[in-house]
Design goal:
- By secondary structure, the chain is of the alpha/beta class.
- The protein is 36% helix and 11% strand.
- It is built from eight helices and nine strands.
Amino acid sequence: MVHTEPQYQLPRDFEGFGYESHNCQWPNNARIAVSFVLNYEEGGERSVLDGDPHSEPYLWEKGSAGGAREGARYLNAEQDFEYGSRVGVWRLMKLFEEFGWRITIYAVARAMELNPKFGEYCVQKAGHEIANHGLRWLEFWDYDIKQDFQYVKDSCNKLKEVTGEFPVGVYFGRGTPNTHGALPQIFKEMHKEQGTPKLLYSSECYNDDVPYWMDLPYEEELPDAEEEGLLLVPYNYDCNDAKFHIAPGFVTSAGQLYEQYLKSTFDCLYREGGKMMNIPLHSRITGKAGRSEALRNFCKYISEKEGVWVTTRRDIAKHYREKFPYRPGSRRGGD
């Protein structure tokens, strides 16, 4: 049963920034901010070995033809996920090291726990950002509000334990109707209880090409000076490599159409200026040799352009907060 708490229901917004759009005024006059995001889920997916009723049917190489096994292991699915953690993730890390870029890792805590060398590499060597992608790669849509709060706290603390970095950004892609609106309050509670950082940003939205502020319903009775709002750094599905395994997708398992689509997206946003581009990745998908080569071609393409800021979502949020600080009633923010 779904539990809905009115104070955490975020309003819909059909107007956005309108015809004029919004120039984020990126550092060093960059025309575009590019955010590569690795969804690291391998080992956090459904598995009978972990007490789940069936194997993971979603986002692996056999796609919709893969199916699942009820009450039994499905080695085909298990090992496709293992390819991501054993091989694909390192291929992608070498790619970003080649270009000298830092990215954001949407990290599932259980997955990071099972591959500690990867967490160590991300934080201590490469300087990539760890963002919260959940305790495991599972739905929790029917949690009550107490369970919801605890889930967010537990996943943050587990990521700090296994990677050494406390996440300041969140993207579950799942959750209850209350999770997204409650995130700032949950982080404030943790800050008070544990001294951990407050929420810097949420990426639980898909409705724009630029960050924006949202007023929080439970803050509306506070004086303006006490309201903190919620900074949203939008994500997307259209450039997501998951579309190799879902319909409508990139039509073929080959990387060439994917490369072409990424370039077209970049070209449009680059021409418009002041926007950000998301490139969502999975190590078991784009970490495969043929697709990683298509991704490398795209990376080479944008590396040869002037005014391209490839960065983490954490740094995008920091820039936006500094340039356009929260102002109640304003999507854009600013003084």
